[in-house]
Amino acid sequence: MSIWDKLRWSKRLNLPSETKLNTPASATANQLASQLRRLSTPAVAVFLAFVVAELSILYIRDQFLPTSAPPSTPVQARQATTRPRSSYNIITQRNIFDSDGVIPDALSVSEQQELLDGPAVPTTLPINLVGTIVHINPLRSVATVEIKSAGNKVLPYFVGEEIESLATITKIERKKVTFRNRQTGRLEYSEIKDEFAVKFGAAPKKAASEGIEQQGNQVTVERKVVEDALKDLPNILQQASAVPNFIPGSGGQIDGFRLVQIQDGSIFSQLGLKQGDVINEVNGEVIDSITKAMATFKDLKTSNKITVQVNRGGTPTELTFYVR
Question: Whole-prediction pTM value?
Answer without folding.
Answer: 0.43
